[in-house]
What does this fold into?
Amino acid sequence: MSIAVRLDARISADFSLDIDIAIPAQGVTALLGPSGSGKTSVLRALAGLDRHPGTIRFGETLWQDHETFVPPHRRHVGYVFQGAGLLPHLTVRQNLSFAIARAPEGPFALDDIIVRTGIGALLDRSPDRLSGGESQRAGIARALMSQPHLLLMDEPLSGLDREARAALLGALEDLLGDIAIPVVYVTHDIEEAARLAVQSIRLQAGRVAP
Amino acid sequence: MNLVILTTIELAAVTTLLLLLLGTPLAWWLARSRSGWKEIVGALTALPLVLPPTVIGFYVLIALGPQSPLMTLLHPFGIRTLAFTFSGLVIGSLFYSLPFAVQPLRTAFEAIGSRPLEIAATMGAGPVDRFFHVAVPLARRGFLSAAILVFAHTIGEFGVVLMIGGAIPGKTEVLSTRIYQLVESLQFAEAHAIAGGMVVFAFVALLSLLLVERRIAGVRP
It folds into this structure.
């Protein structure tokens, strides 16, 4: 089983996306490439947040083709955004509850995720009272509490200082090492990809790099 | 006198309630749509800001008169005309105060941005769920501003209510038209009392608007 993504889209005047990739539906796959290579566009298309011409298939399930489009709230994906990834009007705990209230049955247990992301002390904080690293951890926990079938992560370590980055990278190694669902991990950092991902796909200017 | 105050408050309250209900979907569409019609609809919505109230009153009066096509549709239901009735006043006020509901709501919806809605969508929240549990709480400032502005603006309207309502005591007479009649009959002392009261009310309304915006901006969950 794999996640098949074929996109052929003119995104702006000087950027078009022309890719045809198969992402293994297990383990962590890094989507590597410099900024502007189309990594985030692919990730957003996978989540259903943007719709570009093309076909996306999650195993047997058709998510998108020229006539079908499964909206993001029906795809059961977890999305870790670059930067703020929490609902700003809710505390961390309420963000987790928001996810749980709308989630199907799944493998992720609340207590375990809180421990593994290290957010136990942050639960009653408001998102604007969190540091970059704390906010990213809470965003990851929130994404997992939706019991996703696919986890999409958009440069979760970017914008963090050296210390926070090292700590979160360690937590991610632990978390993603034995994760039960496929993960697509967008990054421009080869070292990060090497530590976290089983396989990687390199993008360059909207195409798969040779 | 108490009857006039009651009519005025009733008109403002009903208008505020209806405009929050009707203005919210319109403001949401204006904030989120990418349609080319958006700015045209936006300009139409803002029209009452610059039109003389008598122009709005004139057209609404004609539309509510017994000969209008709109009223002809209502004849089978026993309604011949809504001119010079409280319902007519409400309809006129809806047009007159529409921009005061739509503008703050549109601004508040635009300020949310797409990120929180996308976060909610990936958590399995559908469009209606996202609207009520993400957009509305994040735009609460806009709702309060809209409510205060519409209420105060409706209390202050004169041209529209005079044209449509005709200032019938107990039915369509409101404070602003009462002042006009008091002055016409040279009862300056009573006019002073009402006018002064309205200045105080308007000031309190605007002050609470500013305080509400200040307070809510700083509030955390």
Remarks:
- Chain A touches chain B through 31 residues (CB under 8 Å).
- Chain A is about 30% helix and 25% strand.
- The domain at 27-40+72-200 of chain A is CATH 3.40.50.300 (Rossmann fold).
